[in-house]
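debug: dumping io for the single-chain case to check the tokenizer round-trip. Nothing else runs in this session.
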Amino acid sequence: MGITKQYLKSKPVCKVTFSVPAEDAKKVAVVGDFNNWSPKGSALKKLKNGTFKGTFDLPKESTYEFKYIVDGNYVNEAEADRYQWNEFAGAENSVLEI
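debug: decoded output
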């Protein structure tokens, strides 16, 4: 798994690319504070090498909790900036700091 961040000089946003190697998966989405935890419109695209990838424009100077949904299962990002306990979920969430 991996995250790349590309800060834009012309806009107050960061292009964040999420990559999830999941050859056997049928569907992968990223959900979090930035999209109200909704998988609609946040599906990642499967590449020929079996990695799911997607890029989103997120406002700079923000912190977001997020997880991946891999075939219906919630999964944390191994390379997250940090992890944070979430009482509502009853589990740790990945944290993205932009």
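debug: round-trip ok. The first strand starts at residue 2 and ends at 7.
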